[in-house]
Amino acid sequence: MPPPADILKVAIEWPGAFPKLMEIDQKKPLSAIIKEVCDGWQLPNHETYALQNADSTNFYITEKNRNNIKNGSILRLTTSPAQMAQQLYERVQSSSLDVKLDGLKELANSSRDVTFAQEFINLDGITLLTQMVESGTERYQKLQKMMKPCFGEMLSFTLTAFVELMDHGIVSWDTFSVAFIKKIASFVCKSSMDSAVLQRSLAILESMVLNSQDLYQKVAQEITIGQLMPHLQGTDQDIQTYTIAVINALFLKAPEEKRQFDESNVNILDCPLTEMSHILAQKQLRSIILQNVIRSNKPINEEMAHQLYMLQVLTFNLLEDRMMTKMDPQDQAQRDIIFELRRIAFDVECDSNNSGSIDKRKSMYTRDYKKLGFINHVNPAVDFTQIPPGMLALDNMLYFARHHQDSYIRIVLENSSREDKHECPFGRSSIELTKMLCEILKVGELPSENCHDFHPMFFTHDRSFVEFFCICIQLLNKTWKEMRATSEDFNKVMQVVREQITRALTAKPNSLDQFKSRLQNLSYTEILKIRQSERMNQEDFQSRPILELREKIQPEIMELIKQQRLNRLCEGTCFRKISSRRRQDKFWYCRLSPNHKVLHYGDLEESPQGEVPHDSLQDKLPVADIKAVVTGKDCPHMKEKGALKQNKEVLELAFSILYESDEYLNFIAPDKHEYCVWTDGLNALLGKEMTSEFTRSDLDTLLNMEMKLRLLDLENIQIPEAPPPIPKEPSNYDFVYDCN
User: Fold this and answer.
1) Minimal CA–CA distance to 85: which of 33, 32, 161?
2) How many domains, the chain?
3) pTM, full prediction
4) Which residues form the ELMO domain (predicted)?
């Protein structure tokens, strides 16, 4: 007869004694179990003891998490969290340097446990640490002269403990003084500082900015771009990542009015970050990031890729104001820009037509505006009242006319010499192209918390977006000629151009020149070949017998997809616990049991390599207890307020499991594929239909493949029952080459 489910067999350690094998009853209060353990070792005052996991986490066992204990777990009897907090509170204030250093080291490690953190915070431990940082710097500096390693370690452990304690969200960030902020900022501004101290200081500044609007103002007044740039010029990629993260955080939280700034007479190195709108696009910062980060010998890790993506998005979002600004047809300054476009394109004609009647001049203007490709020939300003792209389109056109004058004149004159129906309207094309580029680059959207999709080429030029436009407008004109398009084909041409641009971007060119070369290989003829190839691979048979065969096969394919989804759930997935301090987020793992009856999940210290065993996952949820699966805005963790949690991409990756009485297990999938796998698998477990776009795609692919196999002419051909053996690997791979 199996033992009761509430009786668990565990091993319990106590320093200096042999471990004990015990049976613990989960129905008993935890205090009674601890008393029983203490009595076994004849230890008095059982209320001063506690149990904790004897693993790398050393987290305390509490009434809330005791259900995580599994059969065969190894526990440790140790000092209670209240006692431990009191001891460390006293040790970190010791006059003995060795005692103080050991205390800070242990505090930094113990603060990861929320149970201990709560007890230490109740002793006003956060205030103690901030006072040590504020008032202890002079003393630390004296120590630094005598024993530099001791200084670096003490300050590093102090800041690490502070960061870990604040990460639990128990204490508000708004409670910190200006003196503390100045101290942390001073560590960042020093030319030579211990790398661990610098990392923690940058992490604290980033968290302050992201969690408090008031602290954003104070931090931004203390830090200048000139003080951050040296950290980007070093070789430590972690320091570079933290530095870019601070810049991103400051711009993400900057009020709209603070993003507008006159650069003409300002030294950006000395400028407070609160006053700088276009600092992300400044040559000095961009060049340093390009040379020391993107083109460095070290591979870019996942977190750095995310921060570069954030930087790219925030840079392009500076264009949002112009993109959403309508042109005022009565504004003479804005109308002068259109006159400038006309002057550059038809300079000779303008000189010879300065005189004459008003009607004649109006007629000339109308003729020229038609040649420039505006929809409204009489008043082209009306064309720029559409938002998006608003005034951004006019900015792009003027830049192209001034900085690529030969190409601009050639395009305008080339099209004005064609028949009316075959001309490529430069004005209309520029407006629609600007709108398209804003959509492709998602100008105006908040950055995604899970995206790492940055493009190196946008860091190679101070005006990368408008240069991007200049390349694409020439591509549009070239594609128009290759398609021999007429005015009725305008939308078709734009679709082809979008495909050319997006396909070229997927190759992640390192420079704008590489992007241009990539586009040269994606001519209209090549796009037709690609489309034809894709159509052949997705050939769809519409005859009635074949449709009937598809319907007959479909249930088998759906069952195959269902089994694949459930198998993936059995393998499990590592999920990230999203918080404001992203780089130091924790991980957790969830997987389905092989019998499909229980979901096992638990926290991890780092992203795992391969599968995580069931017995190492502390929590479990019976599938029978699941009431529903909700997604997107219906998830409890998506209803919380926070700028990063409200963007579209994170919402698309969020799902939650509802169980018992309004209890939720919240997920944010690492990518769209995992999101579809898990939502499909959970729906399959609940007997519901799998409706994700990946299911539709898999169904279509597998159905087409099965149909082609069944329709093969296999008469008199013997099909082997066993698959052919896999050939041996070749002795070398010298025959492999890059097709591109």
Assistant:
1) 161
2) 4
3) 0.73
4) 333-505
